Amino acid sequence: MHAPRRLVLFLILTALALPLAAAQTTHEVDLLIQPVEGAPLPQFFFEPTGLAIEPGDTIVFIAKTPHHTVTAYHPQQGKEQRVPDGVPPFSSPVIPVGTIWEYTFDIPGVYDVWCGPHEMFGMAMRIVVGEASGPGAVPPSDFGPEGTMGGAGQILLDPSLDPERILAEGSVPWSAITPEAKVPPIEQMLGGGEH
Questions:
Q1: Which pTM value belongs to this model?
Q2: Which domains does the chain have, with CATH numbers?
Q3: pLDDT class for 38, splitting at 50, 70, 90?
Q4: Would you list the DSSP string of the chain?
């Protein structure tokens, strides 16, 4: 092949690849613990709590407070599957305060994730990658240890985290979650009320 033809071929391939590279976006999600006046326990949450992204996008999870993980609801994690078929059982280590962990979401569908130490307190998040499909698009029904345990199930059932709403709004902040969903079962047993 002559040099000019190789150059033309290179330019064509580069031009085709540019839209793919440009389409990939990086998003940020904070991992937080926030005291609540008058409540016996603080709130543990992802901010935003619902996020719509495109396949190939990356989320950078930022530990603003201590002892958080980002863990997929996956049978190999001992949980019901709430990520698309073909997604491996990903989990971050405990992320030190002030540092990050990132994950690229390649397969379209709904991903429900939780924080290992704080699932019981409601620390769960819904990520919709391109479309509202897969096991996570169906409301959770197992709230035991192998399901969306404790407060995490309440958060994931909240109407503000409906996958179609997340797609329409792009992002759902913790403040949009109903006050009733934010009171984890353990706090209800302690006599805590609405936040």
A1: 0.85
A2: 24-190 (2.60.40.420)
A3: confident
A4: --HHHHHHHHHHHHHHHHHHHHH--EEEEEEEEE--TT-SS-EEEEESSEEEE-TTEEEEEEESSSSB--EE--GGGTS---S-TT----B--PBPTT-EEEEEE-S-EEEEEE-GGGGGGT-EEEEEESSS-SGGGSPP---STTSSTTHHHHHHHSGGG-HHHHHHHSEE-GGGS-TTTTS-HHHHHHT----
